[in-house]
Design a protein that fits this description.
single chain, about 400 residues, alpha/beta, Purple Acid Phosphatase, chain A, domain 2, 6-stranded mixed beta sheet, 11 helices, 19 strands
Length: about 400
């Protein structure tokens, strides 16, 4: 039996006020193509389908297109759970009717012990898989539902996992989807914390009895303690902290009496997240030889002087610069901490205005202009000091 595990689509996401929907469309098309190519028996989506509880209409349309392509055009069942970014109730609209159309939306904690049954032809004849789903949940929700004294995410998650294990199926394979933060996993900047101070972590050990565990929430592809307990990761990069991630969908092949076979199917984005640094002139020259100059970029300028409208100059060559930092702005932080801070700031102001003046006129400040500027700055700082007393 073959399953395709993916998660954290975050449809409708904006990054630095730029919509990622066109980029998401590209990677979802690749996921669909992999599902068809490998003739999978189901696609498993482990939560965070949307980026927010009330997603924009184009994001809903993209999900509808993708699910229609999988479930109706190619007759591939899709099983998904809600994540912490989703509104479980909104995501589950029409779930009972859609279950008859190859789409299974597992959003209810109360029904998390109820399996979706899959049937496929295997090496030894017809095989069955019981697919269970634990959507994102808080300890408070579990405590209220079951009247159990659970106070932590780990206790709540363990209760739900044990509830499934206590109702064994007769299936050849048992598979769990869960949207959670397994202890020891590697996080990145684009993930919304489930709780403060690490109390959102859950243990992997209660899940070891399943033949495969499809995790969602963390954006980096990784296994957690055991080869068959895995995060598929997000299908594309959602922050510059992910620039070295190689995104993929996870193909899982289940064979009786054998461990799950894992194959990572690479996903190629329309644009990657990249960080580059150098002087303005170096970067502009480099852009002419950069085949990926339209990537989403975080740029650090190393010029020692101020540059007028650096962002516009860079975007003429790199159209998707989203973040710009300038090394010279950190000069004040690099000065000797024993020096007077106000004096250091005044020096920076003089230097920055000098750079600005030269950028505009093409000539440096002469001695008389520097003297006048220093007098003006001193007067302004004296006036500010008097007003705050």
């Amino acid at each position: 039996m073959k399953l395709l595990h993916t998660s954290d689509w975050h449809l409708g996401r904006f990054f630095h006020n730029v919509s990622l929907l066109d980029d998401q469309r590209i990677v979802l098309a690749q996921i669909t193509a992999y599902a068809v190519e490998h003739k999978v028996d189901s696609v498993l989506i482990a939560g965070d389908i949307f980026d927010r509880a009330i997603p924009p209409a184009p994001a809903i349309a993209l999900l509808d297109e993708t699910l229609h392509e999988l479930t109706q055009v190619h007759d591939i069942p899709v099983i998904l759970i809600s994540g912490n970014h989703d509104s479980a109730e909104r995501l589950a609209f029409g779930a009972r009717q859609l279950a008859n159309q190859n789409l299974h939306i597992m959003h209810s904690l109360e029904d998390s012990h109820q399996a979706i049954m899959l049937t496929a032809e295997g090496e030894k004849g017809q095989e069955t898989a019981a697919i269970y789903g634990i959507p994102y949940h808080t300890p408070e929700a579990v405590r209220a539902l079951y009247d159990e004294p659970v106070k932590t995410f780990d206790a709540a998650h363990t209760l739900l996992v044990n509830r499934i294990i206590e109702c064994p199926s007769n299936a050849d394979f048992n598979v769990l989807l869960s949207h959670c933060f397994v202890d020891g996993a590697e996080a990145c900047d684009s993930e919304r914390p489930l709780a403060i101070g690490g109390i959102d972590r859950v243990s992997a050990s209660p899940m070891t009895t399943f033949d495969y565990v499809a995790l969602g929430h963390l954006h980096g592809q990784q296994k957690r303690g055991y080869e068959h307990i895995r995060y598929s990761g997000s299908p594309m990069q959602y922050s510059f902290s992910e620039e070295h991630h190689n995104k993929s969908a996870t193909l899982v092949t289940l064979t009786q009496d054998k461990p799950a076979e894992i194959t990572l199917l690479p996903l190629k984005p329309l644009k990657r997240m990249r960080s580059i640094r150098g002087t303005l002139d170096e970067l502009i020259t480099q852009a002419t030889h950069d085949p990926h100059s339209d990537d989403f970029l975080a740029i650090t300028l190393t010029d020692k002087h101020a540059i007028l409208d650096a962002m516009s100059k860079l975007r003429a060559h790199y159209p998707n610069v989203l973040q710009l930092e300038k090394d010279y702005l950190h000069i004040a932080h690099q000065t000797d901490k024993t020096k007077n801070t106000a004096t250091a700031i005044q020096k920076d102001e003089q230097a920055m205005f000098g750079d600005f003046f030269q950028e505009i006129t093409g000539e440096p400040l002469d001695a008389s202009q520097k003297k006048y500027l220093q007098t003006l700055l001193n007067d302004l700082h004296q006036q500010t000091s008097e007003e705050t007393q």
